[in-house]
Amino acid sequence: MKKHFVASLFIKCLVFGSAVMAQTPKSSYQIPALFNYYHQNFPQEKVYHLDKPFYASGDNIWLSAYLFEANSRFTSPLSRTLYVELIDEFQTLAKRIILPLDSTGRGKGDFKLPDSIEGGNYRIRAYTHWMRNANEAYFFDQTVPIYKTTAESVLIQPEYIFAKGEKYDTIKVSLAFKDVLDKSTAGIAFDYEFTQGKKFLAKSKQKTDTDGSAMLELLIPKETKLKGSMFLHLKVNHNETIFKKKFSIPVNPQIDVQFFPEGGDLIAGLGSRIAFKVTDEAGRGLNIKGAVFDNLGKEIAPLRTQHLGMGFTYFVPTNLQYEARIELEDGKKMTIPLPKVRENGYVLRLDNGADKLRAYIFQTNPSPTDSLTMIAQANHQIVYLGKFLPTKDFTFNIPKKDFPTGIVQFTLFDSQGKPQAERLIFSRKNDFLKIEINADKAVYQKREKAILNLSVSDPQGKPVEGTFSLTVTDSETVQPDSTISQSILSYMLINSDLRGFIEKPEYYFSEDKMADRNLDLLLMTQGWRRFEWKNILELKEIKPAEFYVERGIVLSGSVKKVLNEKPLENASVLFSHSNEKTGFQMQPNVTDQNGQYIFADQIFGEQTVFLQARNLKGGEFVKISLDSISKPTVNERLTGIRTESMLDAMAFIKASRRQYQINQTFRFELDDQMLDEVTIRAKKVEKEQEDINRPIHGMPDQTIKMDNTNTGGISNILQALQGRVAGVQIVSNGLGGFTAQIRGANSFSGSSEPLFLLDNMPTDSDMINMVPPMDVDRIEILKGATAAIYGSRGAGGVIAVYRKKGSELRETPKPNVIRARIQGFYEARQFYVPNYETPKIQHSKPDLRTTIFWNPLIKTDANGKANIEFYNADNISNFKIIVEGTNGKGSLGRGTGFYKTVEGGK
Fold first, then answer.
1. Residues 666-704, buried b or exposed e (16+ Cβ, 10 A)?
2. Which pLDDT does position 520 carry in this prediction?
3. Hey, how many other C-beta atoms are within 10 angstroms of the C-beta on 724?
4. CA distances from 197 to 90, 221, 522 (A)
5. What is the DSSP letter of 542?
6. DSSP character for 769?
7. Handedness of CA 217, 222, 226, 229 (dihedral sign)
8. Distance between CA atoms of 406 and 497, rounded to whole angstroms?
């Protein structure tokens, strides 16, 4: 509770501060102060990372979490709770886990993909509660293809073609069928159906062509108004097996063409570079050629893409209107209007050099008394500030020595503090950590032990202590699609600061000599960045932080009066839970003036919790509620995935299917071999029954097993204890219920009333009186030292009642009591590393895993060293080692290594 109070106090300070600073700046001199205030009071966080680019049904997604401060790239000390979600391509939340983060902002987790999972382009989304105050663009959100290899032997990948007509709009769906065993997919029969929302649109039957493809077409009349997402449903008959598939059809499928004047606007009479970007429905760049024309039909400037659908041209606009006439590689022609030309304004041009920037500022009507201010910010810190009285056109140099590695945003303000032009550049210092990862051998036999030596140093060669994640994959089957793959460098330095899909992010950290120039094109055309000056300059529009910093599981709710539903202030709320790891936990609290209660910073896994409320006099005639956990909405986003992506992953799909078939075969064979070891099945069932209500205490002082001999003729469970347990006194309360006292229990509080437990959850005698005797499996009595595990609440002894399985469903609910199953923190599974030095029956199974080794948390010592050991599998292949991580103090690094395996071994 103390930690939560600190977080609440912090948020109240933000509200007070906003009231003080709630003003739009009257001059540019106030901007730095407003900037610093905003980022000191609204710190941001970033989160990263996965183990590989795609997965198969039955596979495991391994997660390594890095939580960073956005302004320093230090690991964040704020949040200790991370939400990680698996989202399917229909924007449905498939699974959600909550991961605990340690003091260094690190955590680990995993998703076990069931064999039955449908294939598709899923997303992994990760965020903290505090991140939700800013924008969903702050969330880690990565597209992850998942291929279903367990049931179907044929994969289907759709591609969509859209066209508008006078009477009808047309949707064409090109389907590519691919057999994982390379068999013919010609003549495969399937039924298909188009739907939107709950509305049926069209259906028919078809067969694939000789090349295993099919083209479907849907005509939509212009007058038709459709609501809801559109889907394609398939029912396929292949190799005497029938299976179904469902695909989501993109909402905005048109080719997108956008133009971006450098600095922001086209200004009449001022020469300007105009960047452009052309993408398909998946967000991937398309090549074009063409030209800019004015409204008089005169050609003004040529257009041609230079990199991934991006390029730029240059011309001096006048007061005319302009349009681009372009032609795509497939011959399709388009005409797109350019942004309107403004009569007055500013043009900001930046040429990014190695050590300095060359800045050009042009304006139409300069005033000798109006100053301009140039501010550059990176990582939420001001890294350059210049003020000057300009002439119409002038240039100057800006040194880059104080710029950190990453995106730097330049903004030009007028004398009134209003932004007039903006430009992003990338500062590259090459100050990354140097990571070397070497195997002790270049060539191994299959199943031979591998020893990896990790060495990390800073740019000056000094050893670095840090935390890192490491993955070893079969590089011949796991061939990442460069379109969507990213690293800790590309994500932290580019993706996390720009909204929208970025194609081939890792390319910009390659050795290509054109990488810097093409990265400059990206920053001119991406069109939107997370950081907006409006948030700084209009603090009056900033609302108090709605989502607080979480450092554990949070339970909150309200207590109200039963009759009139009015909030009840100062009501007592008791929260308790228990399990074998944490033992018995109990916390009291009181409601505030709004009848609200909160239990913050709780550390527990998935389990049942107990909440009980009473009024000021201890009465139970109150109503308690538990808030549901709010989840951010799931919005559609570009994936970058196209048909050829499936073909690139075919080697991985085949390997995953082989491993699945091996697992299935081996499972049956192993069951047959181990069947003789199981001699008494009844005992195993009985053990499962006992585990349902296993107590956290040890052996009780006495146990009463309930059966027909001691439940007959009684209406109350406490009656079963009368005269049967020495030292336990049962007294009728005159209202049909009973109370109990245990003699010999040590009472610290002066009360001899025992602690009542119902299925390990604390309760009271009223609740115990409501339990039907026939539902009870046993009653356990604890006295003295035996009850000490429950602390002062067990000073009067403990009476623990355990019901039979399923009996809790017949419980009569009480309005002042909540018994709820809470998700809690997920306990990450350990990556299985077989030890082939020790013979086991399981080792007879062929091992063809595509991920050979995964460690989400490796720490280097003071010498920057770490050693990793594991055993290779049966794959005869080449393997790639990837290590990524941080020193926790702002420096990032990535390293790779390679080795191969040959026949032989154990």
1. eeeeeeeeeeeeeeeeeeeeeeeeeeebebbbeebbbeb
2. 95
3. 14
4. 12, 17, 36
5. P
6. H
7. positive
8. 9
- SS3 for 29? helix
Question: Buried b / exposed e across 854-871, counting CB within 10 Å, b at 16+?
Answer: bbbbbebeeebebebebb
DSSP-derived 3-state class of residue 661: helix
| Residue numbers of the chain with a pLDDT score lower than 50 | 1-26, 530-531, 540-541, 668-691, 747-751, 809
CB within 8 Å of 436: residues ≥ 6 apart: 454, 455, 456, 895, 897
292 bridge partner residues: 301, 324
Strand partners, 605: 825
Place of tokens 């026939």: 774
The closest of 109, 111, 95, 99 to 61, measured between CA atoms, is 111
Q: What's residue 518's pLDDT? A: 96
Pairing status of strand 622-626 against strand 553-561:
antiparallel
Q: 779-797 burial, b if ≥16 CB within 10 A, otherwise e?
A: bbbbbeebbebbeebbbbb
Q: Report the C-alpha gap between 356 and 351 in whole angstroms.
A: 9
Q: Record the tokens describing residue 164, joined without a space.
A: 């508008």
Q: Please report where in the chains the tokens 């000490």 appear, as a residue.
A: 788
Residue 411 is which amino acid?
Answer: T
Overall residue count recorded for the chain in this entry: 906
pLDDT for the residue 169: 84
Q: In 3-state terms, what secondary structure has residue 724?
A: coil
DSSP 668-700: HHHHHHHGGG---HHHHHHHHHHHHT--SS-S-
**For the sheet containing 45-50, what is the strand order?**
45-50, 60-69, 106-112
Residue 701 contacts by C-beta under 8 Å, 6 or more apart in sequence? 781, 782, 783, 786
DSSP letter (8 states) at residue 188: -
> Rounded to an integer, what distance in angstroms lies between the CA atom of residue 240 and that of residue 460?
64
Nearest by Cα to 764 from 531, 576, 555? 576
Query: Which residue is listed with tokens 């050979």?
Result: 852
Token pair 């002062």 in the structure block, residue? 792
Q: Are 216 and 173 in contact (CB under 8 A)?
A: yes
pLDDT of residue 24: 41
The sheet with strand 168-179 has its strands ordered as 154-164, 168-179, 213-221
Q: In the chain, helix, strand, coil percent, each to 5?
A: 15, 45, 40
CA pair distance 327, 161, nearest whole angstrom: 17
Residues 107, 111: Cα–Cα separation, whole Å:
14
**643 φ, ψ to 5°?**
-55, -40
769: number of Cβ within 10 Å = 19
Write the single-letter amino acid at 5. F
What dihedral angle (degrees, nearest 10) is formed by the CA atoms of 434, 440, 442, 443?
-150
Q: What is the 3-state secondary structure (H, E, C) of 616-646?
A: CCCCCCEEEEECCCCCCCCCCCCCCCCHHHH
- Which tokens go with 138? 């702050």
Query: Is 0.85 topped by the overall pTM?
Result: no
Q: How far is Cα 473 from Cα 471, in angstroms, rounded to an integer? A: 6
The predicted pLDDT at position 689 comes to 43
In this predicted model, what pLDDT tens digit does every residue of 464-522 receive, in sequence order? 999 999 999 999 998 877 777 889 999 999 988 888 889 999 999 999 999 999 999 99
Task: Give the β-pairing of 81-87 and 120-127.
Answer: antiparallel
Distance, CA of 130 to CA of 548 (rounded, Å): 5
Asked whether 890 and 71 are in contact (CB, 8 A), the reply is no
Across all residues in the chain, what is the average pLDDT? 83
Helix/strand number for the chain, H first, E second: 10, 53
Q: What is the pLDDT of residue 527?
A: 60
- For residue 776, what are the β-bridge partners? 803
